# Entry
Amino acid sequence: MSESVGNNNQEVNIKKRARKGYKSVGKQSIAFKNPPYIIAASSIAGKKEGEGPLGEHFDQVYEDPMVGKNNWEEAESELLRIAAQTVLNKAELKNTDIGYLIGGDLLGQLIATSFGIAELQIPTFGVYGACSTMGEAMVLAAMLVDGEYAKRIIALTSSHFAGAEKQFRFPLDYGTQRPYSASWTVTGSGAVIIGDYKDSKKKDGEPDIVITGATTGKIIDYGIKDSNNMGAAMAPAAFETIKQNLDDFNIKPDYYDKIITGDLGYVGKKILIELLNGKDYDISNQHMDCGIEIFNQDTQDTHAGGSGCGCAAITFTGYILKMLRERVWKRVLFVPTGALLSQTSFNEGNNIPGIAHAVMVEARL
# Structure
């Protein structure tokens, strides 16, 4: 059987389930009966991110890491506020046109989100999945739209290098040396509007971008304790979620043009490929990692790559969606990954569990 025929058969199986009204698929997945649309997206990045390989794809790049504010936390809230307002402007919508906002960040009690979006006065769900938060927010938004609980929902998240270092590791003033397994937290914020209608602002000939399904991740703990090695902590969770998505939908890796993890970096990527190969799933031709793509390892001194909620968020909203709109890719599995630790759990010597949520995104003419 040729590859194209195999892919068509897999697509037919998924569409048959949707037509029959099934939403729950397998053990952990969802197939949307009325796939929600991604109406608009925004990507706001910091200086280092703007200097990386994807810099030209971001809506705005801020040279000032403080974004005109008094401290790192206020700076992250401002990035998030700008992302929310930018996505509304791009969709030509007002805050009152949005049913819900679903978002989160890495700071304690989601203070970047709560302070950043307060002025919008949109009914809000705050969510925390560490660096997997963008995937979690998008899945929940798509479920609410497909369930007809809202016509339009904003899903967004953010992170900031200095704020994350201050909270999870050491303040920048300490000047500590970073191990090669460490990743660099992305400064940035990404947002999407997910709705039940097509984007009327798209150019002629551009496809609709739809969310066809999702796989919710489980908390996976392989006993990793090193807070500087996020890739090793998150790779097992990515493995479990990707494998479950393929199993639940009875599809092969080549169903997707790209299987995109959030921020495993160079260390986690290797572990993920090895774990999947052990179960006879070879994704080496399809796999891409946002943490690898967002920085230039040779010139930007980020060691294992990028991380943080903003890493997957701005890579998706700035670059991945562009590849889908241009039909370079037709189907992607977007799998943001998160390391579920806190200052308290780390200082008490606990393991670092991981989680990953998969979003099935498709370009349709």
In short: The chain has a mean pLDDT of 89. Residues 139 and 305 are 25 Å apart (CA to CA).
